[in-house]
């Protein structure tokens, strides 16, 4: 499964005004066991074009194994396909300070710019459960008033937000949404690891109830 090239080009054009770089396509089968919606690619992903292939991606693969699936069985995408960055400074081993790009969370306008891409994937990727990783993916689909800390590990069955004439509207169709924490969150808060493990066990059991798209 891959979005049409003309849609990718539209996404690249819509995101041009913002401080982002590169472009990463969603990746996975058309009929996956799960669809994963993350935040945005990072430096590693922009370099190799593979979603969740960096440090956080390695943790994600461990979590997926707990849920009983492998990378080749899931469709991985994100709310924004280009890397949002900010400039910062880093002191090298020689003591010289150099400027470099750091990852940052995408803005609401950047999320809006790439909304048509995710809308297409949600409509065309036939996944029984959509797993949101972190707050960005969750809020993009079910509203800005939702928090992963409140909803993680729960199965939401409801419409999702879709862009219509530059305004988000609810779909007529219901989807199964399973929120959990972004795998990178454990780098800053190791206490979340146990909660993610619990979520993956719940997801493993849910997959038995909903093994296929309907």
Short description:
With 214 residues, this protein is α/β, with parallel strands linked by helices. It is 35% helix and 23% strand.
How would you explain this protein's 3D organization?
The chain is of the alpha/beta class. The chain contains 8 helices and 10 strands. It has a 5-stranded mixed beta sheet with strand order 3-2-6-10-7, sandwiched between helices. A 3-stranded antiparallel beta sheet has the order 1-4-5, with no helix packed on it. A hairpin with a 2-residue loop joins β8 and β9 (167-170). The longest helix is centred in the last third of the chain and has 18 residues, at 192-209. It is globular.
SSE topology sketch:
Blueprint lengths: L4 H11 L4 E2 L12 E5 L4 H6 L6 H12 L7 E5 L4 E9 L5 E7 L4 H6 L1 H10 L5 E4 L1 H8 L5 H4 L4 E3 L2 E4 L2 E4 L4 E6 L11 H18 L5
Parallel strand pairs: 2-3, 2-6, 6-10
Antiparallel strand pairs: 1-4, 4-5, 7-10, 8-9
Shape: globular
Query: What share of the residues lie within helices?
Result: 25-40%
The arrangement of helices and strands along the chain is: HEEHHEEEHHEHHEEEEH
- The average pLDDT score comes to 96
How much of the residues is beta strand, in percent?
A: 15-25%
Q: For the largest sheet, list the strands in their spatial order.
A: 3-2-6-10-7
Distance between the ends: 18 Å
Low-confidence stretches: none
Strands, count? 10
